[in-house]
Amino acid sequence: MRSFLMKLSGYMILGLMMIGCNNIAAPVEVTKTYLIAMASKDANQISACSSAEWEIEAQKMLDSFIGVDTILEDLVCREIENDGLEAKVNCDGRIIMTYNNEDMELELSVVTFVLKQNRNEWQIYKLDYGVQ
Fold first, then answer.
1. Residue 70 belongs to a domain
2. Distant-in-sequence contacts of 49-57, Cβ < 8 A, 24+ apart
3. Distance between alpha carbon 75 and the CA centroid of its chain, in Å?
4. Domain containing 42 — which CATH number?
5. What total of structural domains would you count in the chain?
6. How many CA atoms within 13 Å lie on the side-chain side of 41?
7. Which of 80, 98, 109, 126 could cysteine-pair with 69, CB 3.0–4.6 Å?
């Protein structure tokens, strides 16, 4: 019985730690999660990573991926700026979209993801095009 209770409390602590990590995920991790969700067409995760201001644009981007196969390749992201309220993240890699055996690449290095804190959570609220 004691062993069971120790395991149960260990799982509860681990669960609480995981919830806490989600609430304070670094801007780089939020950006990676957003891009993975975009490539896998996960509307719920995209919404979770997006601010209210960005959510409509994010859904429009997602809609553009409907009907094409998508692959996320060589994703590497780095934080280039962070003042505690706003952060900027650049990524290398690409999203390859395939339609009728024809590939088109969306190069990620030309986009800067701008995130802001919202209730202790980093969320994407705009994209700047061109290397910052």
1. yes
2. 49/123, 49/124, 50/123, 50/124, 50/125, 51/116, 51/118, 51/123, 51/124, 51/125, 53/125, 53/126, 54/123, 54/124, 54/125, 54/126, 57/127
3. 11
4. 3.10.450.100
5. 1
6. 10
7. 98
